[in-house]
Amino acid sequence: MTDFYLVTLMLALLLALGTLFLLVLLRVLEERRDVADTRISWTVRALQGQEDDQEAPSATSWSDPGDRAGRRT
To answer: Is 29 a member of any domain?
Structure first.
């Protein structure tokens, strides 16, 4: 009879440890997803900024007086 209680106690402890492990794993994966989402949003913002910057040099290169003075004859 004592063996039954010991086996039941060990199974309960194993179940508790497994549940704790899964909760910690879930928390870690959630944090990694948040970090990945943040990096993706930064990348999207940077790429959107580069698209705006690609149009900007063509508009600003003509307004630079030093650049125009050196190229005009």
So the answer is: yes
pLDDT tens digit sequence for 4-16: 999 999 999 999 9
Q: Is the pLDDT of residue 65 over 80?
A: no
Q: Which amino acid, one-letter code, is at 17?
A: L
Contact 68, 62 (CB under 8 A): yes
Question: Whole-angstrom Cα distance, residue 70 to residue 47?
Answer: 32
DSSP 63: T
In the chain, the number of structural domains is 1
In a domain, 71, yes or no: no
**Residue 43 is part of which domain span?**
23-54
Give the 3-state secondary structure of residue 1: coil
Q: List alpha helices for 1-73, DSSP H.
A: 2-61, 65-71
Length of the chain: 73
